[in-house]
Amino acid sequence: MITISNLCKSFGDLEVIKDVSFEIDEGDIFGIIGQSGAGKSTLLRCINGLETYNSGSIVSLGKEVSSLNKKELQLIQKDMGMIFQNFNLLNRLNVYENVALPLRFWKKNPKDEENNKRIHELLKLVGLEDKINSYPRQLSGGQKQRVAIARALVLNPKILLCDEATSALDPKITQDILTLLNKINKELNITIIVVTHQMEVIKQICNKVVFLKNGKIVAKGKPEELFVSSNKDIQDFAGDNTDLLPTTGVNIKLFFTNDNSTSHTITSLARHLNIDFDICQGKLENFRGNTMGSLIINIDEKDQEKVIQYFKDNQIEWEVVHRG
Amino acid sequence: MADMMIEASIETLYMVIGSTLFSVVLGFIPAIILTLTASDGLKPNKVVYTILDFIVNVFRSFPFIILMIIVIPVTRAIAGKAIGTTAALVPLTISAIPFVARVIESALRGIDPGLIEAAKSFGASDAQIIFRVYLKEAFPAILSGITLTMISLIGYSAMGGAIGAGGLGDVAIRKGYQGYNFTYLLVTSIILIIFVQIIQTIGNYLFKKLS
Fold first, then answer.
1. A106 touches chain B (CB under 8 A)
2. pLDDT at position A315, please?
3. In this predicted structure, what is the pLDDT of residue A183?
4. Can you tell me the distance from the alpha carbon of A318 to that of B14, in angstroms, rounded to the nearest whole number?
């Protein structure tokens, strides 16, 4: 649906996107994650033509974005709704008129039966039917984002672009918005691209993700694959702290996937090999309903060989973790 | 005295309202061009912006009393005469245009750039962004800019009295200053204060109601 190849983009001398390539398929909820300044929002804006790029290619909905004239670009933009961190609603328009605004840009009368029905349906979908005559200042942050979502969907887009859409919201409201995005993806069959710095967002709704650092892709794949990868950048980003691990012995990190998350790996390890070890760090996380976990244990060096053999025999993913 | 004051007040209102209307209409155009061509505008153009910005600054730096004299030929060409309330509309409007251009420009540029970006992301044209986003959102701020313009025009129109524009300024200068009559000075001043208060109150009310 969208193919990005060797994309490069600079602002003056500052290179913000460096040789980025990836593909987004229909039906994806695709995550672009990275720290502030990693170039992810700029990347998103290149996809719908709000930003230009220096070299490389973006084929959105079958068309090379940089080759389009203004009219053609507007037609592409019509197929891509967008929501923002700060909602960007017009303060002087009520909820109904805010949602209707893109229709007016396309010279469609919001009062026509069909359009009017669509606006009401969308407000129902986002759960704001009763706020139809309210103004943005009367709404909470989560409600404003819901209005923005309805507005982004009013032109029947194929793709929804989300630029840090939950970053200004508290955890509970973030959950609600993520649930809504998931529903939109499944029920309306709209492909969603999510730019975020929140690991939670990626874990909960994305089926694919690229991790961006300083304008480069340092990892891509399924969120759960990224989670178990030993990529230093991702571990730093996720806040995995290895500073507190013991300095003696060997630290080994085990990964639990859905299959063995609930089995008794640790106790059976101790029983089978008849060894002692310490548990130093552990966590369980939820990826779209799948539980994944990791655990760091500290063993004596003399036991290293047989422990690793045990993991291999039982097909448990592991890696040696070095402190610091 | 009462009749004279009423007549002078009407003349002042005529000059102020008339020149406000003309200057708002004429000041809108440079305001829009300045907003569009600014570096963060929809059509950044450094040359156009710099030139227009310079012209606006030049006209704003003229003291009104001097501008009034300089534009007398223009006043004659447009109004057919250089003296009287209608003739005074010309220098008042000319002096207010750059002022209006600036207040509208700053109202428009005060709009959150995120709104412009959102409109673009839905495929809005530049004209639609100007009318449906910029002007719509900035309307209350533009209105308070116009209030400010009206109030400064009250002051200018009184100054116009010095070269025969009529109105309250004319009464204050002829009867009060040249005729050594403090009562005239006091009464005209009080009427001017009341005008300013009324306009400001209405302006504040509308700003609050609309924003």
1. yes
2. 81
3. 95
4. 86
Q: Determine the average pLDDT of the residues in A116-144.
A: 95
The strand pairing partners of A90, in sequence order, are: none
Q: How many CA atoms lie within 13 A of B186 on its CB side?
A: 4
3-state percent helix, strand, coil for chain A, nearest multiple of 5: 40, 30, 35
Contact pairs from chain A to chain B, CB under 8 Å: 65
Query: Which strand (E) or helix (H) includes residue A75?
Result: helix A70-78
Between CA B91 and CA B67 the distance in angstroms is 7
In chain B, which stretches have pLDDT less than 50? none
**Which residues of chain B have a CB within 8 Å of the CB of A101?**
119, 122, 132
In this predicted structure, the answer to whether residue A262 has a pLDDT above a threshold of 60 is no
Shortest CA distance from A163: residue in chain B: B118
pTM comes to 0.86
Q: What is the pLDDT of residue B91?
A: 93
Q: Does A104 touch chain B (CB under 8 A)?
A: yes
| CA pair distance B204, B145, nearest whole angstrom | 11
Contact between B1 and B187 under an 8 Å Cβ cutoff? The reply is yes
Q: Residue A82: its chain B contacts at CB < 8 A?
A: 118, 121-122
List Cβ<8 Å contacts ≥24 apart for A314-319. Answer: A314/A265, A316/A254, A316/A255, A316/A260, A316/A265, A317/A228, A317/A254, A317/A255, A317/A257, A318/A252, A318/A253, A318/A254, A318/A255, A319/A230, A319/A252, A319/A253
Q: Does A82 touch chain B (CB under 8 A)?
A: yes
Distances (CA, A) of B94 to B48, B68, B165, B166: 21, 9, 15, 18
The 10 Å Cβ neighbour count of residue A322 is 9
The sheet with strand A278-287 has its strands ordered as A278-287, A290-299, A250-256, A317-321
Evaluated on CA atoms A236, A238, A241, A242, the torsion sign reads negative
Using a CB–CB cutoff of 8 Å, tell me whether A93 touches chain B: yes
Specify the pLDDT at position A263.
67
pLDDT of residue B96: 95
